[in-house]
Amino acid sequence: MSLDWLPRDNEIKDHNLVGDQHNGTEAPCTVYEKRPLKDPQGNVVEGLYTAWIILNNPAQYNSYTTEMVKGIIAGFQAASSDRSVVGVVFTGTGDKSFCTGGNTVEYSQYYAKRPNEYGEYMDLFNQMVDGILNCKKPVICRVNGMRVAGGQEIGMACDIAITSDLAVFGQAGPKHGSAPVGGSTDFLPWFLTMEDAMWNCVSCELWSAYKMKAKNLVSKVVPVLKKDGKFIRNPLVKTENYVEDGEIVYGDMKTGEEAKAGKELMKECEVDFELLDKAVDEIIWKFTNLFPGCLIMSIDSVRAKKKFFWDQAKLPNRHWLAANMMGEAFLGFTAFTTRKYTGEDVIDFIKFRQMTAEGHEMNAEMFEAVLGSPKE
């Protein structure tokens, strides 16, 4: 068997920010909106705005393409330099996902085995994170759904996170051919305990919004499911303390019959972001009623702790991630994006480790041996 069946994209990508407009309305794109500021009674405040930067790629769970990354950079630059903007809301389209990170189709079909190209892409990625951390306006991450992988990383670069209780959080790198060195290894130890940060980085487990609130990753969790006109909590999550193996556990996902019943209940509900948007508006109004210079000085002083470790590691991480596109990243992203052909979204890890232990070269023979084969 050869790998000739793998889909590839050979159209060279433009990694230049200058001279292009990277905002649009047709997905996949990044949308930039200035929305009039409103007081708590709903009255429009003349001349002041909230900037909304919206990841608009719902068909691919708001994963960001190269062009979308450019749009995010441009959006944060625009908000930062606009004197009429009092705060930024960073969110995604729909109710399924805030962001699931980089676009794996683009990664596997274009960037895999093109380390120089991926290095240029990572220059843009680093500018995106820098753009969030350097924005001279407070940034709220409005978590409307999954915040996973690179989505988790750009979310943690924000100042405050308000989340739907349907959201899940976590990393995917070691399972799919990468490492969460786009910010998670820098930011997570500031939010979680060192061991929680370690496990969340390497296990690729997805933790509920309630569990992340209990572990101090997010500021507020609000219900978004409505049944018979009333909000109910996510029925797939255990939202009360319980004891498991002698340890108090909170926010774990339900399993078995409990999960089945929860899914049935969700079919009877509608998603309504009223409480999520109310919580975001309350924080924006709080920010508005503070001295702007004192506010951003306070914010930047807190951000500096995250920026210190991010700045130390972002360039060597850029080079490693680029080099990794020749090996494990190629395998991981290819397995994930070809799962509809092979039925498997990961490689054969045991076979990979066995061949590595035998000193096998990382070549086409190894790739063919550990990747799934297309089904007839």
What labels would you give this structure?
376 residues, 45% helix, globular
Query: N-to-C terminal Cα separation, in Å?
Result: 13 Å
Shape, per Cα inertia axes: globular
Order of helices and strands: EEHEEHHEEHEEHHHEHEEEEEHEHHHHHH
- Tally of structural domains: 2
CATH arch. level architecture of the largest domain: Alpha-Beta Complex
Mean pLDDT: 93
What percent of residues adopt helix (DSSP H or I)? 40-55%
The radius of gyration computed from the alpha-carbon positions, rounded to a whole number of angstroms, is: 21 Å
Number of alpha- plus pi-helical segments: 15
Describe the structure.
With 376 residues, the chain is α/β, with parallel strands linked by helices. It folds into two domains: 29-224 and 273-337, 2-enoyl-CoA Hydratase, Chain A, domain 1; 235-270, no CATH class. Helix content is 45%, strand content 19%. It is built from 15 helices and 15 strands. Strand 2, helix 1 and strand 3 form a beta-alpha-beta unit. It starts with 28 loop residues before the first strand and ends in a 6-residue tail after the last helix.
